[in-house]
Specification:
Length: about 650
Amino acid sequence: MKKFYNMLRASFFLILIALLNFVSTVVLAQTEMNTLADGIYYLKLKGTNQYATRDPNAGGVAYEANWIYSKVANADRTLQRFEFMKRESGRYTIRVLNPGANEGYMVEYWESYWMPGYDAAWHTFNVYKNTSDGSYAIQTGGNAGMIYIAFSPWDPRKRLMNHGITDDISPVSFPFELIPYESTKSEANLALTEFSVKTVGDANFTPTVSTSSNATVSYTSSNANVAVIESGQVKVVGPGTTFITASQASNATYGADRATRALKVLPASTGLLTHLKFNSNLNDVFGNNGSIFGTGSSYEAGKEQNALVLSGTQFVKLADGAVNHDNITIATFVKITENANWTRLFDFGTDKATTMFLTTNADNSNKIRFAIRKDNSAEQTITSISNSLLTLGQWVHVAVTLSSAGDAKLYVNGTLIPTEASVSPFTLKASDMGMTTQNMVGRSQWPDPYLKGAIDDFRIYNSVLSSSQILALSNNVLPVELDSYTAKANDNGQVTLNWKTLSETNNDYYIIERSINGTDFTKIGTISSKGSNGSYNFIDINPFAGQNYYQLSQVDKDGSRKELGIRSVMIGLKKQDPLLVYPNPVKGNVIAFQAPISLAGKQALVEVLNLGGQKMAELKVMLDDAAKGTLASGLGTGIYMLRIDKVYSSKIVVE
């Protein structure tokens, strides 16, 4: 009955094979397929201490004893052994070597192991190796088609099962490490501590590891453009993400082991990481948008456009790891309407034991306090000497900095405030808290009163701003004051943008973006600032046919960005050179079109772009004698732009 049920489920999945084949082709082009040496391996979940394990007591149901779960390294590692053997098909069988009644059973394609025999249709797998970090993905190769297996994210016991329909994360993440089993040796238990986010220019560092073995630990980096290994240390060389792998060879006592962690590196010029303007939304300039919890929040006129109003029952939650940096600056405008005891302006941490916060009323004193603690340690604090820094109903700019050396400073309205410190310098820095998950504006980790008031221009930097930089923030100086900004179509079908500035303060460069709907913009160019003021122009040599929207933005030297305006231009097709799509709206998976007659009998470059100008498809199509052609789209419902030879274009609707 179990087999029949699985066959029914497998046949249902066959309708997805074509799509999964496509995804597999794209992702697996950077991997090695079925090159694993036959042998006995531990199947480890990458970046953790979790191993695939047969648990005969799981679930209390007879057949569940045959399922495979993710569990911590077992003292008896023989309970976590799997034999990989390549078969005549070129795929592998995975045989359970865990001692017990079912030892030697084969892992089947669906989610468990059931039969002692071997069936090529049900018990073979492709094994892919990610060449960048040495991790693996496992794919069924028999009757189930191109379906990957992984530990279930929704089962609290982390059962091993296939992910062919939902949560198909393995083709991208390669979730497994395969560690050779050495029966006569102890497990090294090598573990690599999570990295804090680094910035280009940071000093070389030695990763923190723990291990039972005394064998030398060596390191590799999966992306040499982000980080390299020099003399046993990690050297940051560029922005991006790389995987650092720590490895130990086997010795007389311990077997070989390795551990991998992701390292994120930010550009040196990117000091500003989070910037919430609260202009009637919770959008962050850099895409790490906040989320509002609680009902009743609203917006009112702020220091710059709008501000978020919190009535004491709401708070804003920011992304995980928002302050996971060695150096930190947090700055915002706030207008308090009721300053209750221990009200938090912000509180970033994991729980009460690990937290970094700023309260506007420490212990009913009306003094401002900044504090940090980790794992229930004593709070390290600075507290304002004055208790009259905030006036109810008035805007105040508050900023705090904490350096990697433990130097903590508090600013109000751009002025450095005298404080009393519990310890100086601090021995904790923001990154010591790790990847914090409870990063809240307006709420405490404790059951303290929520913030009542308004917030505007909330910023987090991964650097310690100078007193002059904080003063500029508090003065709310406009980085660019525009005199004019125009967009006009030329006779040759191009669009010229012109703008002139009256003043520029700390301006670095301008970004020009284009859209066909006025909402989804794609960058098409940048122009450096001329200094204090100047006149600028930019030419779009290839606008879309129809309405084009151009958004002009400026970027400060600290990385912050401000939109300066949007202009629109209509570009029409020449009457003698139309591009027709029929029918439009498009129904089904085929787009039929007729290009200008001048392209009849020729090969044309056909592109499909989304509303943001991103390319969804590109191929060369041979047009017939009437300049007609077809394109198999596979597009989802929506509005797109069809473009021929980067000259002729037409908007299409797919239903």
